C-alpha cells in the first residue's frame, strides 16, 4: 500500500508515502508500537495530517464492499481475522492486496504537526517534502525537528540503540515545495510517488487571520490546485482528502450544514433576497483574485507591501462574506478542488478549533498556542482579567485526537467505496455539545484559583474572576484601568515623573496588544454560526463498539469541566509553557 500525505508551510511540507507489505492485514487491536512524527514549520501554519485505517467493523466493511463493487473501479473487500484488506479488481490479497494499515496522525499547533504511526514495522517509507537548500539541510531538519524529539520516547525505548537507524530507514527527506506547480519534486521522486500512492491528504494551511493576500493564496488556494494536478498522475489513487476548517463557512448564521462549496459561490450572495437581479449578485472569480493579488504586489513599494497586502486580503474576504483572509482563501481552495476533481473521490474534513488531545497519545498533548490559549495564559499570569466576547456565545472546540480519528474513519469509508463524488465532514461541538463562553471563564477561574501560576519569586499569582465584555468601549476602558492599577502607574506618577512616563508608555503598549488580540478574535468570539455534524456522527454509527472505544470522536461525550480544568490547561502549562510559572 502507498499513501501520500502533503503538509506544507512556508518552510517544511512533509510528503508521506507509507508503503505496507502486501501480505499483511491490519488488526485494530495491535497498537503496541507507535511513534509520533512532528514536522516543525515556519510562520503561522496549522497542519493536521491523516491516513488510511481499518476502522470499519466486518459488517460495515461488507456494506462498503457492496457499495464499492457497484462503482466503475470494481473494488472488493476481504475481511479476515479482524483485518481489513482492499483488493482492486476483485483480486485476492496475495495477488494484489492493499493493506489498510493504522497510520494515525495527531494534529499539532500553528507551527507544526505530528503523525502517530501504529504498527510502524509495517510501514515502508515516509517521504517528507522539506523546503531546504539541499539534501543535507533537509536531513538536518529531519533529525532536529522530528527524530530527536521527546514525542518519540516510546519508540526510542522500543528500539534502543537501533532507534536512529530504524527511523532513518523509514523517513526520507525530499527537497521540495508544495507552493510550486510541480511540488518542487525531482522527476524520479515524483514518478515513484505517483506509482505508489493510494490516498492523498492535503492539510497545508497558513492560518494567520490577517496574512498577506498573496501569501495566503499561494498556500491555501493554489497549493490544493497543485496537489490535485499531481493526483491526476497517480495511477492507484483511491481518495483525495482536504483538511480544511469549519470556519470556511464564513459569516453564515444559525445551523450550518455539511455541504461543499461550488466554484464562484459566495456567502454574501446567499444573504441577498431572492428578488435581487442576478447581475447584482457578487460572483467570485478565483483566477481574477489571484491576478489581483499578483498585480497589487507588483505595484507596491517594499516598505508598504506587507500592510497593503494584508489590508487587501481582509477587504476581499469581507466583500464576499468571509471574516478574514485565512478562511476566505481556504474556502477558495475547496472550490478549486471541487472544480478540478473530475472522477477523483474527494473528502473535505472541516474541524473547528483544534485543541489539546483528549486521550491519545496522552491527554493534554499540544504544541504552540492555539486559538484560545494566549487568553488562557495571559489570564493565568495575571496579565489579562477580561476579554471582548459574547458571554452567551459558543466556542466550538474539538480535541486533536478526535479530529484524527474522524479523519481515519472517513478515509476507511470512502477509500473503500471509491465513488467519484465529494463528501464533507464537520468535526465540531457547537450543535451537539456547546461550550459557552461564560462557562469557560468560570472554569478558567476555578483552575487558576486551585492551581495558581507563580511569579519569578515563586509567589502565587491570584487572579480575579474573568470579566466578559460585549462592547469595545467598555473593554478598552477596563484594559486601561486594570493595566494602570496592576503596574502602579498612579502611585509612580506622584513620586517619580520621569519613571512614570516610561511606565505609561509600557502600559499603553500592553493595552494596544490586548486590543489587537481582541480585534482579531472578534469575528470568532461573536460568531453566530453553529456547525452541524450529522455526517460525522453517521461515521460513528458504522463502527463497532470496540472501534468507537479505540478510535472515538464523539464530541457529545466530552465533559467540558473535566477537559478544560484537568486536561487542557495542565497540558498547556506542561507542553507549551514547559512548566514555567508552575510551583516548584
From TrEMBL:
Q: Which EC class is this protein assigned?
A: oxidoreductase
Q: Which residues form a coiled coil?
A: none
Q: Which InterPro entries match?
A: FAR (IPR026055), FAR_C (IPR033640), FAR_NAD-bd (IPR013120), NAD(P)-bd_dom_sf (IPR036291)
**Keywords of this entry:** Lipid biosynthesis, Lipid metabolism, NADP, Oxidoreductase
* GO process terms (BP): long-chain fatty-acyl-CoA metabolic process; suberin biosynthetic process
Q: Which GO terms describe its molecular function?
A: alcohol-forming long-chain fatty acyl-CoA reductase activity; alcohol-forming very long-chain fatty acyl-CoA reductase activity
Q: What is its EC number?
A: 1.2.1.84
Catalytic reaction(s) noted: a long-chain fatty acyl-CoA + 2 NADPH + 2 H(+) = a long-chain primary fatty alcohol + 2 NADP(+) + CoA
Chloroplast listed as a keyword: no
Q: Tell me where in this chain the Thioester reductase (TE) domain is found.
A: 120-407
Pinpoint the Fatty acyl-CoA reductase C-terminal domain residues: 508-578
Chain's role: Catalyzes the reduction of fatty acyl-CoA to fatty alcohols.
Q: Which family does it belong to?
A: Belongs to the fatty acyl-CoA reductase family.
Q: What is this protein called?
A: Fatty acyl-CoA reductase
What organism is the protein native to? Cannabis sativa (Hemp)
Amino acid at each position: 500500500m502507498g499513501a501520500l500525505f502533503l503538509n506544507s508551510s512556508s518552510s517544511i511540507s512533509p510528503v508521506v508515502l507509507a508503503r505496507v507489505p502486501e501480505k499483511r492485514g491490519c488488526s485494530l487491536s495491535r497498537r503496541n508500537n507507535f511513534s509520533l512524527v512532528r514536522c516543525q514549520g515556519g510562520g503561522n501554519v496549522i497542519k493536521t495530517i491523516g491516513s488510511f485505517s481499518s476502522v470499519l467493523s466486518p459488517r460495515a466493511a461488507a456494506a462498503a464492499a457492496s457499495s464499492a463493487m457497484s462503482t466503475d473501479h470494481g473494488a472488493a473487500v476481504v475481511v479476515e481475522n479482524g483485518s481489513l484488506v482492499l483488493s482492486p479488481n476483485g483480486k485476492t490479497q496475495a495477488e494484489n492486496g492493499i493493506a489498510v494499515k493504522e497510520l494515525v496522525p495527531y494534529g499539532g499547533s500553528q507551527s507544526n504537526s505530528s503523525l502517530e504511526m501504529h504498527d510502524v514495522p509495517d510501514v515502508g517509507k515516509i517521504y517528507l517534502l522539506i523546503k531546504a537548500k539541499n539534501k543535507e539541510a533537509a536531513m538536518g531538519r529531519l533529525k532536529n525537528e522530528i527524530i530527536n524529539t521527546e514525542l518519540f520516547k516510546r519508540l526510542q525505548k522500543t528500539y534502543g540503540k537501533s532507534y536512529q537507524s530504524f527511523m532513518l530507514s523509514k523517513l526520507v527527506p525530499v527537497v521540495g515545495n508544495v507552493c510550486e506547480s510541480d511540488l518542487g519534486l525531482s522527476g524520479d521522486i515524483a514518478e515513484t510517488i505517483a506509482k505508489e500512492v493510494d490516498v492523498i491528504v492535503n492539510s497545508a494551511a497558513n492560518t494567520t487571520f490577517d496574512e498577506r493576500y498573496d501569501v495566503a493564496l499561494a498556500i491555501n488556494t493554489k497549493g490544493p490546485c497543485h496537489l490535485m494536478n499531481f493526483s491526476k498522475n497517480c495511477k492507484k489513487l483511491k481518495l483525495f482528502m482536504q483538511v480544511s476548517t469549519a470556519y470556511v463557512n464564513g459569516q453564515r448564521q444559525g445551523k450550518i450544514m455539511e455541504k461543499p462549496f461550488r466554484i464562484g459561490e459566495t456567502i454574501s450572495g446567499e444573504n441577498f433576497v431572492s428578488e435581487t437581479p442576478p447581475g447584482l449578485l457578487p460572483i467570485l472569480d478565483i483566477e481574477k483574485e489571484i491576478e489581483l493579488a499578483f498585480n497589487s504586489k507588483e505595484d507596491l513599494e517594499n516598505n508598504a507591501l506587507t500592510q497593503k497586502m494584508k489590508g487587501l486580503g481582509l477587504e476581499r474576504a469581507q466583500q464576499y462574506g468571509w471574516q478574514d483572509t485565512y478562511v476566505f482563501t481556504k474556502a477558495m481552495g475547496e472550490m478549486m478542488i471541487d472544480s478540478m476533481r473530475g472522477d477523483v473521490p474527494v473528502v473535505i474534513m472541516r474541524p473547528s478549533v483544534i485543541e489539546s488531545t483528549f486521550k491519545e497519545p496522552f491527554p493534554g498533548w499540544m504544541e504552540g498556542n492555539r486559538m484560545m490559549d494566549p487568553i488562557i495564559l495571559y489570564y493565568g499570569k495575571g496579565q489579562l482579567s477580561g476579554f471582548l466576547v459574547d458571554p452567551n456565545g459558543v466556542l466550538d472546540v474539538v480535541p486533536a485526537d478526535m479530529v484524527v480519528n474522524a479523519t481515519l474513519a472517513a478515509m476507511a469509508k470512502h477509500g473503500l467505496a471509491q465513488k467519484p463524488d465529494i463528501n464533507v465532514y464537520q468535526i465540531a461541538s457547537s450543535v451537539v455539545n456547546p461550550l459557552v463562553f461564560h462557562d469557560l471563564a468560570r472554569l478558567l477561574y476555578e483552575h487558576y484559583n486551585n492551581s495558581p501560576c507563580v511569579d519569578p519569586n515563586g509567589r502565587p499569582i491570584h487572579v480575579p474572576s474573568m470579566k466578559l465584555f460585549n462592547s469595545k468601549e467598555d473593554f478598552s476602558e477596563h484594559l486601561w484601568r486594570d493595566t494602570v492599577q496592576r503596574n502602579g502607574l498612579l502611585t509612580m506618577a506622584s513620586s517619580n515623573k520621569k519613571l512614570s512616563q516610561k511606565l505609561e508608555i509600557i502600559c499603553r503598549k500592553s493595552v494596544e496588544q490586548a486590543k489587537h488580540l481582541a480585534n482579531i478574535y472578534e469575528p470568532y468570539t461573536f460568531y453566530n454560526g453553529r456547525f452541524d455534524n450529522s455526517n460525522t456522527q453517521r461515521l460513528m454509527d458504522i463502527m463497532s463498539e470496540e472501534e468507537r472505544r479505540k478510535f472515538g470522536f464523539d464530541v457529545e461525550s466530552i465533559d467540558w469541566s473535566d477537559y478544560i480544568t484537568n486536561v487542557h490547561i495542565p497540558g498547556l502549562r506542561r507542553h507549551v509553557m514547559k512548566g514555567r510559572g508552575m510551583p516548584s
